[in-house]
Amino acid sequence: MSKIKDHHLSLAEKQPARITEFGTSLLTQLEDIKQLPKLVAGGSLGQLSTEGKIETTLRLEREV
Prior knowledge:
By secondary structure, the chain is mainly alpha-helical.
């Protein structure tokens, strides 16, 4: 989880969740998030979403 925190700000600039050219969003089904079990162990989906942890995890997974 510390890797996610360390890269949160730098990754936000590299891989936006919105494609501004077209104004569309990138959507991912929860079942496609590889780290979902670890995330859910750390809090509710609402809490994880509010804290930006789901988006950060998705950015890290796209980076690999």
